[in-house]
Write a structure and sequence with these properties.
By secondary structure, this protein is of the alpha+beta class. Helices cover 33% and strands 18% of the residues. The protein has seven helices and twelve strands. The strands form four sheets. The protein has a four-stranded antiparallel sheet with strand order 4-5-6-7, with helices on one face. Strands 1-2-3 form a three-stranded antiparallel sheet, covered by helices on one side. The protein has a three-stranded antiparallel sheet with strand order 10-11-12, with helices on one face. Strand 1 and strand 2 (47-51) form a beta hairpin. Helix 2 crosses helix 3.
Length: 286
């Protein structure tokens, strides 16, 4: 117990209580920076944390030596005699350079169906986005030039992603850095991009990736019978989707997807728009 008390005593002596002058000097500098930036302050003033002025939580932690400001804060290699305000200024200048990048990430997270990262993150420069029809696009956004055309990789069935790659290449000149990022993305892909699950459905101005297949196989003039004529006869049960199909078209779609499984005379697969489970019979009743 004696050794424990001795160790505690030694630790206490290593951390002397700051003088009132030290407190006054630090508080005066915090006042210069702005108390709204202060995130955390240790009681002994050994550590101070500030945050981004736009209230995105990006903290800079400064360790203050007891002989501050004669010795610089241990955050980066600032010259001797540097002050808290100098360190904070450099930190905010760096964050200001990233504001546009973070704004693009927030626009994508808000307006599109983001699969990865699962939790919104300002640290990750990639976004994996669902395009519907089993297709996805993996975007790599340039932090230094976030409004520029991103690098991308398409994921999904080749017969669909090939068309997306061709559209991306063909429309590449349509990318305008002054336009919103999501708008540019839709222009290059030539489609209305699906929003997050549960978001209100937007009126599509262009066909989805697989829509052409449904239109090309659309029965006309009732040639396939009244149950599969011009009227749709199957609706996705997902409340946030509710897309309608002709059973014969959906059946052909499911047959073309490798993940579709069959049990007796029923095909089980995923909705081309929202990827929720769907099921149709192989043969019409009657």
């Amino acid at each position: 117990m004696d050794s424990s008390l001795q160790g505690g005593s030694e630790n206490f002596h290593r951390r002397p209580v700051p003088s009132s002058h030290f407190y006054q000097a630090i508080y005066a500098e915090i006042e210069e920076i702005g108390w709204e930036h202060l995130l955390r302050l240790e009681e002994d003033l050994s550590t101070i944390c500030f945050q981004d002025k736009k209230e995105r939580v990006h903290a800079v932690e400064m360790i203050l030596p007891r002989d501050y400001p004669q010795s610089a804060p241990s955050v980066a290699a600032w010259p001797k005699g540097s002050r808290l305000k100098d360190a904070m200024k450099q930190f905010l200048e760096h964050l200001e350079d990233l504001q546009g990048f973070w704004s693009v990430l927030e626009e994508v997270d808000r307006d599109l169906w983001v699969l990865e990262p699962r939790q919104e993150s300002h640290a990750a420069s990639f976004r994996q986005i669902c395009l519907g029809d089993g297709c996805q696009i993996l975007l790599y956004i340039d932090a230094k030039n976030p409004m520029s055309k991103p690098e991308c990789r398409f994921l999904g069935p080749n017969w669909l992603t090939d068309d997306l790659r061709k559209s991306w290449k063909k429309n590449s000149r349509r990318w305008v850095n002054d336009k919103p990022f999501v708008e540019n993305l839709g222009a290059l892909l030539g489609m209305e991009l699906p929003g997050p699950p549960g978001a209100p459905q937007r009126t599509a101005s262009k066909m989805n990736v697989g829509s052409a297949m449904f239109i090309s196989s659309h029965p006309v003039n009732g040639t396939l019978g009244t149950s599969t004529g011009t009227a749709v006869d199957y609706t996705c049960e997902n409340p946030s989707c509710r897309k309608s199909f002709h059973v014969v078209c959906l059946r052909d779609w499911l047959r073309s997807i490798t993940t579709t499984r069959q049990s007796f005379d029923v095909l089980f697969g995923k909705c081309p728009y929202c990827s929720e489970p769907v099921a149709v019979k192989l043969h019409d009743g009657g």
